[in-house]
Amino acid sequence: MAKEMRQPIESGCPDGFQYMHPSMVKNFGQWQWHDHPRPGVLRHVAKSGDEVWTVKAGTQRILDVFTLRKLCDIGDQFADGFVRFTIRSNIEYMVTDGAKVEPLIEALEGEGFVVGGTANSVAMISHTQGWLHCDIPGTDASGVVKAMMDELIDEFRNCNMPNRVHITTSCCQINCGGQGDIAINVQHTKPPKINHDLVANVCERPSVVARCPVAAIRPAQVNGKPTLEVDEKKCICCGACYPPCPPMQINDPENTKLAIWVGGNHSNARSKPSFQKLVASGVPNNPPRWPEATAIVKRILQAYKDDARDWERINDWIDRIGWPRFFEATGLPFTKFHIDNWRGARKSLNASTHIRF
Amino acid sequence: MFIGASTENTQHFFDEINDYGFDLGGAGPCVRTAMSCVGGARCEQSCANEHKIHRTLVNNFTDDVHRPALPYKFKFKVSGCPNDCMNSIERADMAVIGTWRDDMKVDQDAWKSYVAEKGRQHTIDNIITRCPTRCMSLKDDDSLEVDNRNCVRCMHCLNVVPKALSPGDDKGVSILMGGKRTLKIGDLMGTVIVPFMKLESEEDYERITEIAESTIDFWAENGLEHERCGEMIERIGIVNFLEGIGIDVDPHMISDPRQSSYVRMDGWDDEAVKWFERQAENRSAAG
Question: Which of A223, B107, B124, B127 measures 20 to 30 Å from A253, CA to CA?
């Protein structure tokens, strides 16, 4: 007898209030101020006088159930049993009793978790699935993050930066990691290598042709098979054709490099939101530790730490000192590739005599 | 996101987790699952009920979440203040950002304690001079003077001195549309479409849902395959988009007026009349 299909309950997004710490429910919309008692800890005070202390710990973002259970056990035993995950995949424990904070931190650190990532620290690096789950990446996501955070761990644990630093990584040029103060993104440098025998069987050719941002792809016949070809003079090597058409392989162990971008900032504070700008490219995609990329990130952070004023994010800092000084301070080369030629590029040229000497 | 289930287990997994009150969906060319900041649950800068806005918007489109039939993805994101911790301005097709319309609140005693503790120079260098519209002045008696009409709610001063400075009481949201990430034409920031609306009454929530519906309907009809809403706006022009969703032009939508004269403007008089009529309507509605 055929099993009857269970009708799905299309409940949509569940109500967060049922999972919320009771003190947060009670004081919803009635918070008054907050401060930072120590790195990794926030204290919020409500108009009622109630307090909620938050302890933030880094996680590897893709959590196995065992680690997740351990984190939750710590929450039950040492906190009030209420947690949230942040946009950068850290876990936050909320407690109403400040006396619980130290034992909670000890419990977390005892299990190997790192407490930090608040205020003017280097926050957890934002990234996505990489080789764990995505078919597109030219390099790993969590691997790069692990290698870099190992080097930057003291800056996560402490609050020594002029302002928070949001670093992101992306394993292809779709850039899921997002805009950040510093972004380490894959940069393909050669057009895709096409397996013409497979294209017609696998790819919806008109979609792939439409997908190319510079109209460099057209239908063709190769070895008597219908396929696609790329006008390599037009190709910008973005890899957009690869997801809908895997036989157009964009990833290459030698020619897929990393590029580094700085100055992305979503916040409206002090200045309007800004996009990140290219500062370095041709960086080797060198697993398992990506030392060259990490070295450049550290140089940028050092220059920022040495020279920026309090509250300046990286974009604010560069705005004040100017790009020529940025390249000087970080020792990075300035090339013809730094000059934008994409849509709206004219706005990025210096139409003034505002020059620093 | 649960990664690594075997094919045989996926239905069983969903059946069980659905019973616990969780739902599936949000991959492909559909309305995606949204994000909202911790907001009113913990943050003093919260200017809106982020949780409610998030659920109101996403749950109105459950069908569109579950049955991908749109040109491409569509994302809502809600941040309770212009710090925009959800990065909604850039990562959402429709970004809802809390803000306030009246004067910021200044606790002068708390402010003066801050100045006494940190010093006048520190206060001037880190707060007063960082205001993007230079609307703040540190008076000789250490009190703070704010030209609220020129405050753009950038949040910097509130971030630095949360004990003394807070959002005003006349809270609401700004809505920006068309933000998107990199593929294919590059990253786009959202554009202000609704400079301010209240979100308190049920009618207010119905109105924001209506705005979302008009936008998704228009984009579903007019977007090309794999074209994000922002890419469509780039292609057809924002004026056509506004007409399509039934929202009037507003100077808050631009940072500068046009710099190019190469446009046909013989409809000028009619458009100017529309503006004056709207202004008159707004004045009489305000009473």
Answer: A223
DSSP B34-71: -EE-SGGGT-TT--S-HHHHHHHHHHHTHHHHHS--SS
Give Cα A253 to chain centroid, integer Å.
23
Asked if A34 has any chain B CB less than 8 Å from its own CB, the reply is: yes
Q: Supply the DSSP string of B85-120, one letter for each residue.
A: TT-HHHH-SEEEEEEESSPPEE-HHHHHHHHHHH-H
CB contact under 8 A, A173 and B54: no
- Asked whether residue A283 falls in the same domain as residue A266, the answer is yes
For residue A155, give every residue at least 6 positions away whose Cβ sits within 8 Å of its Cβ, in sequence order, or none: A121, A122, A161, A165, A301
Fold of the CATH domain B27-101+170-255: Sulfite Reductase Hemoprotein; domain 1 (3.30.413)
- CATH number, domain containing residue A162: 3.30.413.10
From CA A282, how far away is CA A188, in angstroms rounded? 9
Q: How many CA atoms lie within 13 A of A268 on its CB side?
A: 23
Q: One digit per residue, pLDDT tens: chain B, 287 residues?
A: 888 889 999 999 999 999 999 999 889 999 999 999 999 999 999 999 999 999 999 999 999 999 999 999 999 999 999 999 999 999 999 999 999 999 999 999 999 999 999 999 999 999 999 999 999 999 999 999 999 999 999 999 999 999 999 999 999 999 999 999 988 888 999 999 999 999 999 999 999 999 999 999 999 999 999 999 999 999 999 999 999 999 999 999 999 999 889 999 999 999 999 999 999 999 998 86
- The label of the residue with tokens 């492909």 reads B28
Q: Helices A323-330 and A291-307 sit at what angle, rounded to 10 degrees?
A: 120
ipTM, 2 decimals?
A: 0.91
Minimal CA–CA distance to B140: which of B160, B164, B124? B124
Q: For the segment A29-64, what is each residue's pLDDT rounded down to a tens digit?
A: 999 999 999 999 999 999 999 999 999 999 989 899
- Chain B nearest-CA distance from A223, in A, is 30
- Interface with chain B: mutation pick from A68, A209, A266, A278, highest number of B CBs within 10 Å: A266
Residue B233's alpha-carbon distances to A165, B184, B228, B236, B244, in angstroms, are 32, 14, 9, 5, 11
Domain ranges of chain B: 27-101+170-255, 105-166
For the record, the structure tokens of A129 come out as: 């699935």
